[in-house]
Automatic annotation (TrEMBL):
This is Putative membrane-bound [NiFe]-hydrogenase-4, subunit E. The chain crosses the membrane at residues 6-28, 35-56, 62-85, 97-116, 128-148, 157-178, 184-202. It comes from Kuenenia stuttgartiensis. The gene is hyfE. Gene3D superfamilies: 1.10.287.3510. It is a multi-pass membrane protein. Keywords: Cell membrane, Membrane, Transmembrane, Transmembrane helix. One of its GO terms (cellular component) is plasma membrane. It is found in: Cell membrane.
Length: 221
């Protein structure tokens, strides 16, 4: 039984590392569609982790949130973002306020901060949380970093989804998920937010022939 737990813990650790790697790709790539694919793959890995935790814990409502997450964040939202990208005919790729090399260096610093910030906590927690909590915090912080350093509205949407993935993973690893009604509310909020932001992206493109959020300053004039 103990060997079985160790093996499953190692599988979860591998999935967590892969989620972190796809998030780093989101930070370090200059191709918009690659960013969307990276976000979709991370969300898929998260659903695999969620399903495994549901199986090991015997908490059935996690299966429901896993299924909803799979449909929304792996198929519906990426498909909607690909549609928006094709609809607005984006000519330039991802633009950042800082260089990609510096972004990757800062990302490494964020990961180290997340690890050392959670070190006093993970020493006393269960085997699944031991490595998942630092990764979930790092993913959340990297999502926030993407939101504040990227110019295009779509990459900021991806940053928002990344933050939600990190928070969902943190909830799974620390308390086997939030109450079902809370998780359903979060998923609904994310879906509505992405749709609204996608509409704004289209309107920005129509008005300014660009989706650089810096053009919002012109709306005050």
């Amino acid at each position: 039984m103990k060997q079985h737990i160790i093996v499953n813990s190692q599988i979860i650790d591998v999935l967590a590392v892969l989620m972190l790697m796809t998030t780093i790709i989101l930070i370090g790539t200059s191709r918009l569609k690659t960013c969307i694919w990276a976000s979709a793959i991370r969300s898929f890995l998260l659903t695999l982790t969620s399903g495994l935790i549901a199986y090991l814990s015997g908490i059935h409502h996690i299966y429901i949130t896993t299924g909803i997450s799979l449909v929304l964040k792996v198929f519906v939202i990426p498909g909607f973002l690909f549609y928006i990208v094709d609809k607005v005919r984006i000519k330039k790729e991802v633009e950042s306020y800082i260089s990609y090399t510096l972004s990757l260096l800062i990302s490494c610093g964020i990961i180290l901060i997340a690890y050392y910030a959670t070190l006093p906590i993970i020493q006393f927690e269960n085997v699944f949380m031991r490595h998942c909590l630092p990764v979930s915090l790092a993913i959340t912080l990297l999502g926030f970093f993407a939101m504040i350093t990227r110019k295009k509205a779509i990459t900021q949407i991806l940053g928002l989804i990344t933050m939600e993935d990190g928070l969902f993973f943190a909830a799974l690893s620390t308390s086997y998920g939030m109450p079902l009604i809370v998780e359903l509310g979060v998923f609904f909020d994310i879906l509505v937010s992405v749709i609204i932001m996608g509409v704004y992206v289209y309107r920005i493109k129509e008005s300014f022939d660009s989706i650089d959020v810096g053009f919002f300053r012109e709306l005050r004039e």
